[in-house]
Amino acid sequence: MSQKTVICLYTHGGGMRGLIPALIMQEIEARTGLAMVDMIDIFSGPSTGSILNAAMNIPHPHEPDRPKYKARHLVLFYEREGGRIFPQDALREFRGFLHDFNNRVTKIKRLDWVMNRGHYDPANLGRSLRALYGKTKLSDSLRNLIIPVYNIAEPPLPKDGDSTPEVTLGSHAVWLKKIGFNKGVQPATCTDVSLFDAVMGSTAAPTYFPCHKFKVKMDDKKSKVNTITAIDGSVFDSPPITYMSVLQRYLPPKTKVIMIVLGTGMTQISFTKEQWNKFGSLGVVDPVHGLPLINIFFHAAESALSSAFEEKIGDNVFIFNKSLVPTTKNHDLPEQDIDDASPDNIRRMKKFTAELLEEHEDQLEELCKILVKHHVKTRKKSLFKKR
Q: Do the beta carbons of residue 225 and residue 236 sit within 8 Å?
């Protein structure tokens, strides 16, 4: 009996820089002549990655077995909606200054309306996502889909007479997911939640957007409705964390896993002892220095688990990413800020992606062959349960 292969796509977060993986997916679809859902078994990733993954899995209203969107539609989404979600108005830099000043000095009550609601109006993001997803639920997803959010609220304790749930004290990571394979493993219960709420929660990047509160219910007719108060899933999620914390338990025995990782540009840099010690207590979180401590928090878990992850997956990891840190050879890089939707930055992201794909041409060509072969092998006998 031949070994089963499962292909997982992990898409990183990064706000407007989500245009980069959208462009990579567009190139993959152009080369293979297939939609991403024809080739990928599991879609995962937080923040802007969840925008892409969820959209790719929306059924077409007239052909329910086919996707409503392809990658080129998502490229247009970032180009068209980016400026509405992150308006480049005259107050953009002033908002950032006020936010930074407020963090450094003290809370100024008169500025609460600026500080407490995030840099940007979530209604703008909400309108864009409503138009993209409509009323589609996570359980409607064409393929397996994992959307991570971080729940900042403590779950309520059970009342007298209730069965005792698995209680997690304090804020905690949550993977909203639809996962189901035909053989050898119990499928994950589909969470009864709209794609809109799941993605709004996963994209609620602190300091950019306020948290998003919504209700979820496990789709087993017995579970009660729970409330999640979510912030951006990027605060904890990464490819090795998703693989080892979520995927492994649902994969049939002896499954071969191929993991595709689409990045949005790497921002972490290294420091000398002298540089770090000069930062002081405030300097390690200062945007002027590139938010060094915050960048470490975002990337530390992934780097700590990378060796174990690579050992488990072997050579079956395809990573498409590169640094956004300027060098003497390249100054025309996209902004590291996740909220720059200017035409010039969109141009730079397209140039950056073209260079990235050129540098990984052999890897991309090999991957496309694997994806087409996987599609041909599985199109008649799906791995997924029909719901």
A: no
* Cβ atoms within 10 Å, residue 27: 16
Angle at 282 (CA atoms; ends 277, 284), nearest 5 degrees: 55
What pLDDT shows up at residue 189?
A: 67
Sign of CA dihedral 119, 151, 126, 235: positive
The mean pLDDT value for 73-90 works out to 91
User: What's the sign of the alpha-carbon dihedral 42, 202, 338, 75?
Assistant: positive
The candidate with the shortest Cα–Cα distance to 174, out of 156, 194, 196, 191, is 191
Residues 100 and 95: their CA atoms lie apart, in Å, by 9
* Structure-block tokens of residue 216: 């979820």
Asked whether the CA dihedral 340, 342, 343, 345 is positive or negative, the reply is negative
* Number of alpha carbons in the 13 Å side-chain half-sphere of residue 122: 21
Rounded to two decimals, the pTM is: 0.86
**What residues does 177 pair with on adjacent strands?**
146
Buried b (16+ CB within 10 A) or exposed e, 233-259: bbbbbbbbbbbebbbeebbeeebebbb
163: confidence class by pLDDT, cuts 50, 70, 90:
very low
**What single-letter amino acid sits at 275?**
Q
Spatial separation of the C-alpha atoms in residues 59 and 65, rounded to whole Å: 6
Please provide the size of the chain in residues. 387
Mean residue pLDDT of the chain comes to 84
Q: Which of 111, 82, 187 is nearest to 144 (CA)?
A: 187
- Indicate the SS3 state at residue 39: helix
